[in-house]
# Entry
Amino acid sequence: MSAPRIVQALHRWFDTGAAQAPQSRADEQGIDWPRVVPFVTLHFACLAALWTGTSALAVAVAAALFALRMFAITAFYHRYFSHRAFRASRAAQFVFAVLAASAAQRGPLWWASHHRHHHAHADGDEDSHSGKRGFLWSHVGWFLARGNFAARLERVPDLARYAELRWLDRFDVAVPASLALALYAIGTWLEGAAPSLATDGAQLVVWGFCISTVALYHATFAINSLAHRFGTRRYETRDDSRNNVWLALLTFGEGWHNNHHRFPGAARQGLRWWEIDVTYYGLAALAALGLIHDLRAPPAEALRGGR
# Structure
C-alpha cells in the first residue's frame, strides 16, 4: 500500500466522515480491510491476558464495564435512539450516548440508522445483516462491510439535529480510546498505590477494555445472527425473529426478539413475568428517579397473554 493510501486509511480510523462511498454492489459488500484493522487487533489483544495475568479487580472491572455498556447499548442505542421507546432530556441522552459509544460499536446515528433500516427490511434482500447471506455475514461480516460504514442519515433526521450526537458519530473512536487510556492510567496508579490488588495499567486495559469490549461485540451481534435462527416464535411476524432465553439473559432482555419485532416501539421486551428483561428494569428505575419518562408499553393484551 502506498504512503498516501496508508495516510488515508489512518484518517478514516479517526474520522468516519473521510470514508469513501462504495462504487458498486460488489464493492459495497466487500470487507474494507484497512478500516477494520482496529477491530481485528482488538480480538488478538485479548490474548495479552496470557502475559498480563489476571486479578480479582481486573475481572470485576471487565464485568462491570460489560454490564454498564450493555445497558447503554440496549436501553439507549436500541430502545431509545432506534425506536424512541421513551423520552429523555438532551443531557440524559448525551450521557448515555457517550456510555454506549465506549462499547466501540460506532456512534448513535450509525447504530440507530442501521437498526431502523433492519426493521424496514428485516430478513429481506435489503436487510444489512440478513441471514440469507450466511451466518458469518449476519453475525459480523455486515459490520465490517464497506457499504455499511456510513450512517444512513436519511433514517435519523430526528437525531442528526443534535451537534453532539453528530460529533460522537463522526469521531466514533474518541470515546473508546479515552476509556482505554483512563483504564491504563488508573491501573498504573493502583500498581504503586495499592500493590495488594495485583493489577497494573496493561492488565486493566486487556481485561477492562479488550476482553470486555469483544464480549460485548459478540453478545450484541448474536441478536442479529442467532436470534433469527434459534428459539421460539410467539408471533407470526414477517421476519424470522425468535425468542431465545439464553440470549435474553446474555443481552439484558434483547433475546426476546420475536416479541420485539412484534412491538418494536415498546420499552419492554419481556412480555411475561418469567421473561427476564434487565434493560426494562433499569429503565423503570431511571423513570422512577425522573431521569427519563413516558416509557411506551406494549398493548395490555400482550402482557395478559393475548396474541
Q: What stands out?
A: Residues 3-13+41-304 form one domain. The longest strand covers residues 87-88. The chain is about 60% helix and 0% strand. Strands lie at 87-88, 292-293.
